[in-house]
Design a protein that fits this description.
With 64 residues, this protein is mainly α. The protein has one domain. The chain is 73% helix and 0% strand. It is built from four helices and no strands. α1 packs across α2. The N and C termini lie far apart (31 Å).
Length: 64
């Protein structure tokens, strides 16, 4: 289980640094990509467009 501070830090990296979900997980070493995607969707800054972008970027990363 992750603290709210841990969650906030991971989600902030995604939104403020423009990092992909995969890059945030690699940088921090936590959580899983699925968990971070859920946290991002629950954040008030989430617009829906971000989710599509993160899926595309994540898929591109898997291809390489």
């Amino acid at each position: 289980m992750f603290s709210m501070e841990d969650r906030r830090g991971a989600v902030d990296l995604y939104f403020t640094e423009g990092m992909t979900i995969r890059k945030v997980v690699a940088e921090l070493g936590y959580p899983s990509e699925g968990a971070l995607a859920k946290w991002v969707r629950e954040d008030p800054r989430y617009t829906g467009v971000d989710w599509l972008q993160c899926i595309r970027q994540s898929d591109e990363g898997r291809m390489t």
